Amino acid sequence: MARLAAPVGAGRMEAPDAVGRSGAVGCGDEVTIQLRVAGGRIREARFLAFGCGAATAAASAACARLTGAPLGTALCLSAADLDRDLGGLGPQRRHGPELVEDAVARALEAWYSPRLGGTGLPLDRRRVAVAMSGGVDSAVAAMLLADAGWDVVGVTMRLWHDPASPAAQRSCCSPDTVRAARATARALGIPHLTIDAAEPFRRGVVEGFAAGYRAGLTPNPCVTCNGDVRFRVLSQAAALLGARWLATGHYARVANCPGGEPSVARALDRDKDQSYMLARLDPRILRRLIFPLGERRKDEVRALARAAGLPAADAVESQEVCFVGQGGYAAFLERAFGMRARPGEVVDREGRVLGRHAGYWRYTVGQRRGLRIASDGPLYVLATDAAANRVVVGPREALATRWLRLGDVILREPIGEEPLEVRIRYRGRALRGRARPARGGLDVALDDPAEAAAAGQTAALYRDGRLVAAGTIMGSGAFRAPDEEDVHGP
What we know:
Blueprint: H1 2-5, E1 18-24, E2 29-38, E3 41-50, H2 53-66, H3 71-74, H4 79-85, H5 95-112, E4 124-131, H6 136-147, E5 151-158, H7 175-188, E6 192-196, H8 198-214, H9 221-241, E7 243-247, E8 253-256, E9 262-265, H10 283-286, E10 289-290, H11 298-308, H12 328-337, E11 344-347, E12 353-357, E13 380-385, E14 390-394, E15 400-411, E16 420-423, E17 431-438, E18 441-451, E19 458-463, E20 466-477
Parallel strand pairs: 4-5, 4-7, 5-6, 7-10, 11-14
Antiparallel strand pairs: 1-2, 2-3, 8-9, 11-12, 13-14, 15-18, 15-20, 16-17, 16-19, 17-18, 19-20
C-alpha cells in the first residue's frame, strides 16, 4: 500500500495550531492529527500513528486531503472519503479511517473552540448553523433545511458531564452522542463542527444547579442552559462559520409580539411542545432562530428519519438532566459537590418533629416516596429549609398554591389584565391566571391551583400560545391576595 510505503505527513509538527487525538496506545491504536492554520486554510497537516497499518494509511490520506484545504472542506472529511482514497479497506479495517475521522474532528474542535466570541467568515444569508445533539429531532431539522436549499452546517457541543458516572456518557451531547451527530451530518453530506463547551456549561449550568439545591431551591438546569449557554455558544459558532441563521430540533415556534419583537410560541404538537424550556432565550437570538419542527408531530419526524435512512432514526430520548448520570441528582450533588449526609428534622406545618432525614437536598417539593414516616395518611414534602436543615411535610392538599411571586423576570410584551396560561414545569398542565407587577417582579394569581410549586422553578406565562413573560418562582401562597406570612419561600 503506497500510503504505508511513503506516508504523507508522517512525523511530529513543531508548534501546531491545533491537535486532535483519538484512540489509545493501550487499546492498540492511536492517531494524532496536527494542524497549522492560516487565512482560513489548513497550511500543513501531519500525523502520528501507533498500531495497525489501516490507521497509518488513513492518517496519511487525511493529511494529503487536508493540506491546503479550506477549513470548511476539512469539516466535511469522513471515514468513507478516506476509505475510498485507500481503495476500500473492507469492514475489518474500517476502524482505521473511523479513528482518523475522529482525530481530525477533534483537531478542528481544538482550533475553533478557543475562538468562540470572535469573528470568522462573512455572514451568509443562506447558511444556517443547526445544533445537533445526535438525536432524531436535530437530525430531521438539519435534513429539512438541507432539502429546502439552505446551506447547512451542523454544530455539536461537547458539554461537561459527571466523570464518575458512566451513564452520563450516554446523555445529551456526551462523547457518544457527539459521534452520533457527526455520523448524521456525514449521512446528510453537510459539514460538522464540534465545539468544546464543557467549561461554560459547568460554570453556567452545573454550578448554578448545585448552588440552587444547596440553598434549598429546585432549579431548572434545562431552562438555564438554553437561556444562558447553549444558544449563546451556537450563535458564537455560527459567527465563526459564516452562518446568518440558527436552528435546532426543538418543538417550538417563533411568533412576533404585537410590538413586532419575536417571542417563543408553542409547537403544533402539544405533547412535545418545548417552548417552556426556551423561556429565557435572548430576543437577539430569536431574531435569527428557525424551528423546522414547530409545525410537525413527533411520529411524523420519526417516519421522515426512517424513510431517509438516518442513523438517528431510532435514537432514544435523552434524559432530562443530561449531566447527572447514575444515582440521580442527590447522589450527583454528594459525589461532585461534597454535599455529604447531614441529619436533620422532618416536621409538619406546625413544627412538630415527625422523623429524621439525611440531607434536605435529597427532597423536592411534592415528593412522597422515601420519607419513611408513619402517619394516618400520605405525606408530601411541602418545603425544604436549607438554613435549618429541615424538611416540612403535610397532606397533599397543602401543596395547592393560588399565588406565585416571580423574580428575575423576562418580559416579551406588556402583561395587561387579560387571562394568561401559566406553566410551572415542562410537562405540567396549563393553569389559568393573571399577573401584575410587584416588587421588581411579578405576582401571579391563579384561577386553577398549582400543585407543588417550588422556589427556584421557572414559571412561563402565555397568551394565545405565545410566551409573554417568564420568571423564577421566589415564593408562593395559598391565597389569591397574599400577605407576607402567606408566602412560602426557601
